[in-house]
Amino acid sequence: MKKIICIIMILLLAGIPIFLVNINNKELVNLEDIKTDRNLKNVTYDKKNDVWEDSVLGILSIEKIGLSATVKEGTTDEILSNYIGHIEETAIYDGNIGLAAHNRGYENSYFARLNELEIGDTVKYKTKFYERTYIVDNIQVIYETDWSLLQTTKENRLTMITCISNHKEQRLCVQATEVICNSTEIEVQ
């Protein structure tokens, strides 16, 4: 897995566009096109993030894109209209935590700038029990029916999913793995 990530990083740094392909060899949207698709006018921020209500699972913060938003259970229209939603079938606190949010067209389009993240960027997730730091290590375009990246993992991971403009059957998936900080080194779990 680390070799694949290194190869992808080298290709990205070399400026070679990467097209992701599914099992049926149908071409997915180009990741470089997603990076340039900016929906900045729809970016909003959660002003309620200092209050821990019973239904609040956590606060997702991504400094690079100016995001600090409340995470609540579920992915209903009501939840996604106001919060980042926790995908019910995934881990809540430990393991692979699945998160979803709108990226355009809503008052609260929390993942409007998710497409700006790159391998190595930092994501923070604070819950009632802990505050963890994660490093982005996987960015993919997936089909809306492909839930394989939400499978259970031993390591603590965030999997963030949002729609892609003009590609209704595809989703942008950004994954980040928890960083363990020792006194002398940083280690990705």
Class by alpha and beta content: mainly beta
Low-confidence segments: 1-25, 38-51
Q: Kindly report the CATH topology.
A: Sortase, Chain: A
* pLDDT averaged over residues: 79
Q: Please indicate the percent range of residues in DSSP E strands (runs of 2 or more).
A: 35-45%
> What sort of overall outline do the alpha carbons produce when their principal axes are compared?
globular
- Count up the helices: 3
Distance between the termini: 13 Å
Number of strands: 11
Fraction in helix: 10-25%
Largest sheet: 8 strands, mixed, barrel
Biggest sheet strand order reads 3-4-5-6-9-10-8-7
**CATH architectural grouping:** Beta Barrel
CATH superfamily placement: Sortase
- Tell me the series of helices and strands, N- to C-terminal: HEEHEEHEEEEEEE
Please tell me about this protein's structure.
The chain is mostly beta strands and 189 residues long. The protein has one domain: Sortase (Sortase, Chain: A, Beta Barrel), CATH 2.40.260. Helices cover 13% and strands 37% of the residues. It is built from three helices and eleven strands. It has helices at residues 2-13, 31-36, 77-82, and strands at residues 19-21, 27-30, 56-62, 67-73, 84-86, 96-100, 122-126, 131-143, 157-163, 170-181, 186-188. It has an eight-stranded mixed β-barrel with strand order 3-4-5-6-9-10-8-7. A two-stranded antiparallel sheet has the order 1-2. A hairpin with a 4-residue loop joins strand 10 (170-181) and strand 11 (186-188). It is globular and about 40 Å long. The chain starts with a helix and ends with a strand. The model is unreliable at 1-25 and 38-51 (pLDDT under 50).
